[in-house]
Write a structure and sequence with these properties.
Strand order of the largest sheet: 1-2-7-6-3
CATH class: Alpha Beta
Shape: globular
Structural class: alpha/beta
Length: 229
């Protein structure tokens, strides 16, 4: 229940104390911009301007079983901290410019697809973070392109260890049978799979295999950035 809903809950002593504590912490340890370390916000107006002005430089690669796979740019510059802020600093508003980048890149590539599906988080990770950053940018992209977005078409049925520090083969083994696709939504469709970053591509590959296993006609992949491999 909101503390401003008129119910009187906003006057509860514990809620008042919590507000004072948070205000005191912000005063002693003010938030800093993830992009430039400026004080008072996790993402400042200057970094927002840089992000919106960042050129789109599509990177494509061949990676089975994808029909085609691309990213809007290499992982670096202002894009790197923007994705970090979205993913780890609760800067959900960044899904708007990042989703718009995906939409603009999609138009440049000239692909024609039936639906957008974001790479899902396992329910445990989703509860910890509170949101799926890939779903947020995918939904913004879908809104810009007037395409349907179906987050429920793909689920992560197995919680996996962090991919950080794993080799390509270890990543693939870690993700084996991690995803399940809904055939009633996927079968016979041309799918655009969305994620924030591609490194080795192991997560995207595992998700794409799950989609083809239930008879997707084609699976394309698009991410905001791709690592230099």
């Amino acid at each position: 229940m909101s503390v401003e809903d008129g119910s009187g809950q906003g006057n509860h002593p514990k809620l008042r104390l919590s507000g004072w504590v948070n205000a005191a912490l912000d005063w002693v340890f003010p938030p800093r911009c993830v992009g430039c370390a400026a004080v008072d916000s996790v993402w400042c107006a200057d970094c927002q301007q840089q992000l919106e002005a960042e050129p789109i430089a599509p990177r494509t690669r061949r990676l089975p079983p994808f029909t085609a796979l691309a990213a809007t740019a290499t992982h670096g510059g202002i894009l790197q901290p923007s994705l970090h802020a979205l993913k780890y600093a609760d800067a959900r508003a960044l899904a708007v410019p990042l989703g718009d980048r995906l939409a603009a890149t999609y138009r440049l590539l000239g692909w024609t697809l039936d639906m957008i599906i974001p790479v899902p988080l396992h329910t445990t990770r989703l509860r910890e973070r509170g949101y799926n950053q890939s779903q947020l940018i995918g939904e913004r992209m879908a809104q810009s392109l007037s395409l349907p977005c179906f987050p429920s078409a793909l689920t992560r049925v197995r919680s996996t260890a962090s991919q950080v520090g794993l080799s390509r083969s270890e990543r693939q083994q870690n993700l084996q049978d991690a995803f399940h696709a809904d055939p009633t939504l996927v079968s016979g469709r041309r799918i655009l799979l969305i994620d924030d970053v591609q490194t080795t591509g192991a997560t995207l590959q595992a998700a794409a295999h799950a989609l083809f296993n239930v008879d997707a006609v084609a699976v394309y992949g698009l991410t905001v950035t791709a690592a230099r491999l």
